[in-house]
Task: inverse folding
């Protein structure tokens, strides 16, 4: 596991306490943080919703399967799925190798105000510290 | 892979083995086809062509192939297998002997009741035993596996609510639950309401009380839970759930801790399933059939699957007229010969079933106390049949839970369950069961301590472990991402 100071936490995205990120401007993409991919270990399967699926804040919209476990993907915002990252079907390891780039999971149609409830990188780092993160 | 093996032996008499496709030689056969004397007939064109690429093998090659593979296996008959949540207790051989009695082996499920009185008696008595062991009223042997038993239980709960004109759509689910619980609830049309774990490692009354609305059909609870801890507030919780019109499903995954010791009826459980392969010493998996019987209290009794075995005077018969029953869950009467093994075990043990549970709990606590100075114990309190550690004391040396498990293999032990339950980060979940002797437990403890010492001295070796096995560390990621499921290795 990475130490807290080894984590890549870019300021171009906003974070949710369940470790998903959403980009700060359109197109609004969603993925999981460096902390989350490191904690899950090598991903083997990403189950994504269909385009057009409505997302509700706090509700599950997909799952991540790693060599360790299966974990739900929870939506940090309300919105609609505009696109899914089809690349992940063949190469789920992109989420591990490039969590904020090629490892994006879905693209969302949403009101920019949805970002208000999310954390910036500094707040997210403080959140990880308070959780006893690594 | 072919051509890699110059000699069959890699280490002493641990034999290498090729794939069957690589061993085949054109023209070899394990049988001599009868010469019929009939003239050959050509196949219709749509059936002609190249068949599957079956290897041509002699009988001896096939026998050696599977025997060699079997020598790479590790089972509870080989050594200590402390896989948490799986209850890998020893399966007494008397169970096999009883299940192989010719009368049981040859009984056909379509025989009329008068021809199978012995089988029906066994089923009737086993149902009574299963109910009595957990303090409930009746049982059904139909479910063909633990998850099927869960489905049976939740279908009964749904049927009971329907019968009383209740339309409830949610089920409460502690976050320590096995993954099958939310899956079962979903199959019965329920959505799940997560019940977060309390600070002491079990559900708190106040939390559940807030979540229990008139939309909630009930609670699915495993007790002891998957942290190996007794749900100490469960009695108050079930009372409240019943008052608000809900029902309680007990997941029997961890019954080995409480056989004959906890009256689940009085604890407010309406239905519980048994994993007979855990609690009642029938074989684990191996592709063979399982069984997941359920026991119920008064409230759900009318909804049990049918037909049911009943006793009429000194005769046993099938009762079909069960107006509220959820119906059949199995083509015939359940996995009968697996159930014979469970019956044999219960009769062999008798009242000692209680002692088995006592020793299972004692053994887990012994391991917990002997290891908690070298491994992090997130919930330091008396446990039931299993205990959960983490790698927190080893994490600074960059040794993961997986590394610890792999290191244990080099010392001759099957690893514990790892990364479950999910509520504990990097969990190491140890369930010794009652059938390991004190010497076995001490040897396991010594091995775990040796791994911890290795982390202090030389953590790098653990990243490479296992090194002393037939195959060194496998690439689990590639195996999961790109599984090769055919004989064609490219």
Result:
């Amino acid at each position: 596991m990475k130490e807290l100071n080894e984590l890549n936490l870019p300021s171009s995205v906003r974070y949710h306490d369940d470790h998903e990120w959403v980009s700060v401007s359109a197109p609004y993409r969603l993925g999981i943080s460096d902390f989350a991919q490191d904690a899950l270990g090598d991903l083997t399967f990403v189950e994504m919703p269909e385009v057009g699926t409505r997302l509700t804040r706090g509700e599950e919209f997909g799952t991540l399967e790693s060599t360790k476990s299966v974990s739900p993907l929870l939506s940090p915002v309300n919105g609609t799925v505009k696109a899914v990252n089809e690349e992940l079907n063949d190469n789920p390891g992109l989420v591990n190798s490039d969590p904020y780039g090629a490892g994006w999971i879905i693209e969302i149609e949403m009101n920019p105000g949805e970002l208000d409830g999310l954390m910036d990188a500094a707040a997210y780092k403080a959140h990880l510290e308070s959780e006893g993160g690594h | 892979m072919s051509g890699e093996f110059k000699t069959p032996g890699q280490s002493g008499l641990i034999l290498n083995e090729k794939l069957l496709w690589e061993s085949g030689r054109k023209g070899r056969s394990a049988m001599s086809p009868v010469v019929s004397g009939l003239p050959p007939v050509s196949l219709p064109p749509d059936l002609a062509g190249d068949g599957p690429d079956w290897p041509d093998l002699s009988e001896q090659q096939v026998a050696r192939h599977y025997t060699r593979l079997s020598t790479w296996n590790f089972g509870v008959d080989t050594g200590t297998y402390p896989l948490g949540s799986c209850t890998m207790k020893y399966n007494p051989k008397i169970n096999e002997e009883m299940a192989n009695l010719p009368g049981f082996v040859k009984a056909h499920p379509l025989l009329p009741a008068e021809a199978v009185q012995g089988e029906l008696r066994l089923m009737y008595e086993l149902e009574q035993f299963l109910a009595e062991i957990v303090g409930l009223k009746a049982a059904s042997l139909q479910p063909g596996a633990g998850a099927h038993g869960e489905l049976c239980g939740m279908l009964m709960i749904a049927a009971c609510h329907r019968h009383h004109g209740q339309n409830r759509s949610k089920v409460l689910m502690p976050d320590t639950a096995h993954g099958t619980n939310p899956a079962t609830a979903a199959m019965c049309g329920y959505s799940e309401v997560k019940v977060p774990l309390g600070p002491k490692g079990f559900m708190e009354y106040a939390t559940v009380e807030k979540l229990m609305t008139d939309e909630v059909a009930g609670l699915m609870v495993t007790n002891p839970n998957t942290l190996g801890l007794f749900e100490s507030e469960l009695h108050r919780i079930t009372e409240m759930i019943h008052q608000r019109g809900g029902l309680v499903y007990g997941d029997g995954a961890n019954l080995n801790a409480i056989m004959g010791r906890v009256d689940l009826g009085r604890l407010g459980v309406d239905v519980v399933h048994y994993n007979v392969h855990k609690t009642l010493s029938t074989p684990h998996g191996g592709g063979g059939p399982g069984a997941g019987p359920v026991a119920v209290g008064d409230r759900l009794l009318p909804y049990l699957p049918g037909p049911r075995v009943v006793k009429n005077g000194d005769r046993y018969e099938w009762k079909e007229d069960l107006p509220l029953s959820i119906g059949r869950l199995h083509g015939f009467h359940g996995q009968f010969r697996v159930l014979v093994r469970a019956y044999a075990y219960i009769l062999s043990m008798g009242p000692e079933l209680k002692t088995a549970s006592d020793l299972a709990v004692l053994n887990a606590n012994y391991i917990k106390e002997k290891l908690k100075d070298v491994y992090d114990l997130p919930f330091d309190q008396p446990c039931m049949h299993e205990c959960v550690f983490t790698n927190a004391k080893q994490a600074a040396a960059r040794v993961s839970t997986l590394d610890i498990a792999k290191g244990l293999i080099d010392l001759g032990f099957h690893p514990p369950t790892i990364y479950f339950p999910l509520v504990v980060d990097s969990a190491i979940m140890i369930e010794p069961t009652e059938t390991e002797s004190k010497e076995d437990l001490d040897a396991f403890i010594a091995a775990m301590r040796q791994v911890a010492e290795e982390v202090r001295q030389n953590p790098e070796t653990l990243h490479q472990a296992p090194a002393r096995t037939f195959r060194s560390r496998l690439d689990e990621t590639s195996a999961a991402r790109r599984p090769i499921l055919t004989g064609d290795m490219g």
